[in-house]
Design goal:
CATH class of the largest domain: Alpha Beta
Shape: rod-shaped
Number of helices: 12
CATH architecture of the largest domain: 3-Layer(aba) Sandwich
CATH superfamily of the largest domain: Periplasmic binding protein-like II
Distance between the termini: 61 Å
Number of strands: 12
Structural class: alpha/beta
């Protein structure tokens, strides 16, 4: 039994006449009569009564037609669903990310992706970089956004591209003496109570600060420890001290704070987007397309990285 047999039976029931049903189907009447007869033999019972007044479904035929109609509807839906899944319009995307990525660029990327792919189920997990890299290698995530490139066993098989460059900046209360300054120097920072993040992603930042301020920097040793950049901003607004964090904080202005550049300019670890090139779903491809549209320079670097997925360097620099 094939789908066409179901369509033939439904057409015959609708038109009640072999000739009219055949014309509606675009076939000759004899082949239709033969296909219906073959169907009845396969099922083992008559589906239609042939009378002078027309052709009418038997009780068995009515039961068969009800199921046939639902079966064809399901087949049509299956075809539509398969096409949507292949285009990345449905499915699931599991994303691990560091909290600071919610300042930039994730809000724009996730907003655009959600509007364009509302039926893709997003599973979002705030995770430290090391844990998200491990989960990505293990197949527990589809994509990860980390501080610095993923490291550890299996990381060499990931495709990674920078999606954000950061430098160290300071944030202070609007009533702080530094609030009117465009920049602050290291000597000025040494004389102030500091606010720094100390999560699992921060050792490299902390080490860089200690190098900048000096091993004996009392300000760093007595610094207030914040969970993430959002807390740094909040504590700075309260006048607790000078907050130090990534330049992505500039995308989160709020009343009562001022940002200052730090002199000399100090680079921080890049924000890196990574995925497994050998385990890419249509939903992930759609997400990467959103990244390309939202971040053109990143998209160019991503395309170059995909063209050399097994190159010696797992991370390409973003276009200037």
């Amino acid at each position: 039994m094939e789908a066409r047999h179901l369509r033939y039976a439904l057409a015959l029931a609708e038109h009640g006449h072999f000739g009219r049903a055949a014309r509606a189907l675009g076939i000759a009447q004899p082949p239709l009569s033969k296909q219906i007869a073959d169907l009845e033999r396969e099922i083992g019972t008559r589906l239609f009564d042939r009378t002078r007044q027309g052709v009418f479904p038997t009780a068995a035929g009515e039961a068969f037609l009800a199921r046939a109609r639902r079966a064809l509807e399901e087949m049509t839906a299956a075809t539509v669903d398969a096409g949507r899944a292949a285009r990345g319009e449905t499915g699931r995307l599991r994303l691990g990310f560091v909290a600071s990525a919610l300042l930039d660029p994730l809000p724009d990327v996730l907003g655009r992706f959600g509007r364009g792919r509302p039926d893709v189920r997003l599973e979002l997990h705030e995770m430290a970089s090391g844990r998200s890299a491990t989960a990505l290698v293990a197949g527990e995530l589809d994509v990860a956004v980390t501080l610095g490139p993923p490291r550890g066993a299996g990381a060499e098989h990931l495709v990674s591209v920078p999606i954000g460059h950061d430098r160290l900046i300071a944030v202070v209360s609007s009533t702080h003496p530094y609030a009117g300054q465009v920049s602050v120097t290291l000597d000025q920072l040494r004389r102030q109570p500091l606010i720094v993040a100390a999560g699992e992603d921060e050792p490299a930042v902390t080490a860089k600060l200690r190098t900048l301020l000096g091993e004996d920097a009392a300000a760093l040793d007595g610094a207030t420890v914040a969970r993430d950049v959002h807390t740094i901003i909040g504590l700075a607004a309260c006048g607790v001290g000078v907050g130090l964090g990534p330049s992505r904080m500039l995308s989160a202005p709020r009343p009562g704070i001022r940002f200052c550049e730090v002199t000399p300019r100090t680079a921080l670890p890049d924000l890196i987007l990574s995925f497994n090139a050998q385990d890419r779903s249509p939903a992930l491809d759609a997400f990467l397309d959103t990244v390309r549209r939202n971040c053109p320079d990143v998209g160019a670097a991503l395309d170059r990285r995909l063209d050399h997925a097994w190159g010696p360097d797992p991370v390409l620099p973003a276009a200037p």
